[in-house]
Amino acid sequence: ARPQELLLDVDKVRKQFGGLVAVNDVSFQIFAGEIIGLIGPNGAGKSTTFNLISGVLPLSSGAVRFRGHAVSNKPSREIARLGMSRTFQHVKMIPDMSVLENVALGAYVRSSKGVVQGMLGLGKAEEKQLFAEAERQLQRVGMGTQMFELAGNLALGPQRLMEIARALCTDPALLLLDEPAAGLRHKEKQALGDVIRQLKREGMSVLLVEHDMEFVMGLTDRIVVMEFGTKLVEGTPALIQSSPIVRAAYLGT
Ligand code: ADP
Ligand code: MG
User: Residue ranges of the ABC transporter domain (predicted)?
Assistant: First the structure.
C-alpha cells in the first residue's frame, strides 16, 4: 500500500487558562482520508484542542503542523486558506436570512479580509460565483430543496448541515466538526453520518468531537480519548470500546 499522506500533526500542544491546564501536551496525527473522533467527558479539553488547531486560540506551547506548514498561532483565515475548515459547537447564523444567503455570506467572510461591508461592493460576477458555490455545497450536503428557507426556521439537523456546507465553501482537505450530532434526532444523525461518509469517499479528512458513542463508533477510523486535558488513549473504535481505561474513565463501567 502507498504510504498515507500526513495531513495534521498535533505535537505536544498545551493550553493554560491561568492556573488551569485545559490541554496538557496532547499529540496525535491525522492522515489523508481519515475520519478521527475526539471524545471525552465534558471539560476534557476537546473544544479547546479544536480552537488551538484552527487558530482560534494561541497555544501556550507545542506545535501544530498542517500539510507541512507550521500553523501554530497563525490567524484562522490563513489556516483556512491552507485547506482547514471548521464548524463551532453552537450554530452561528443570521436567522432572518435564507439558508443560501447564510452560506454565501459565511463563505465570503471566511475567504476574504472579513469585512462584511465589502460584500456590498462585490461585482455582479463575483457575487454570482459566491452564490453558485454556496448552492453547490448545499446540494452536496443534501440541502438543495431548503436553500430558500429562512435559516432560523430550520430544525437543528438541517442547521448543522448548513454549517457544514458553509465550511465546505473554502474547499478544505480537513474538516473539523465540534459536536455535530449533539441534540439531533435519530434520522438527522443518519443524514449527518451519510454526509460525513460521502466526504471521506471524496478524499476529505474529518476530525469530529462527539459525545454520542454510537455515532462515533460507527463512523470513525480512529478515536482519540481525552480526560482532564490529557490524551488517555488512541485507537480503532473496536479497541476503544473494549479498553478498560476508557470504560472506567469515560463510560463509567
Ligand atoms: P470540552 O470541549 O471537552 O467539554 P473545553 O475545551 O471546552 O472542554 O474546556 C476544557 C477546560 O477549559 C474546562 O475546564 C473549561 O472550563 C476550560 N476553559 C475553556 N475555555 C476557557 C476559557 N476561554 N477561559 C478559561 N477556561 C476555559
Ligand atoms: Mg466542547
Answer: 8-253
* Nearest ligand by distance to the CA of 89: 2
- pLDDT, tens digit, 9 for 90 and up, residues 48-69: 999 999 999 999 999 999 999 9
pTM of the predicted structure, to 2 decimals: 0.91
Measured between alpha carbons, how far is 22 from 15 in angstroms, rounded to an integer? 6
Distance CA 148, CA 109 (A): 20
Is 99 within 8 Å of 147 (Cβ atoms)? Answer: yes
**Nearest protein CA to atom 16 of ligand 1, as residue:** 43
* Pairing between β-strand 84-86 and β-strand 174-178 as defined by DSSP bridges: parallel
Contact 48, 23 (CB under 8 A): yes
Nearest CA to ligand 1 atom 7: 47
**pLDDT tens, residue by residue, 31-48:** 999 999 999 989 999 999
Angle between helices 124-140 and 99-111 (to 10 degrees): 110
Please provide residue 226's backbone torsions phi and psi, each rounded to the nearest 5 degrees: -115, 150
- The pocket around ligand 1, CB under 6 angstroms, is made up of 17, 20, 22, 40, 42-48
Question: Please, what are the domains in the chain?
Answer: 1-83+174-192+204-253 (3.40.50.300), 93-171 (no CATH)
**Residues in Cβ contact with 187 at an 8 Å cutoff, skipping those fewer than 6 apart:** 157
DSSP 8-state class, residue 146: G
145, three cell numbers: 430543496
Listed residues: CB within 5 A of ion ligand 2: 46-47
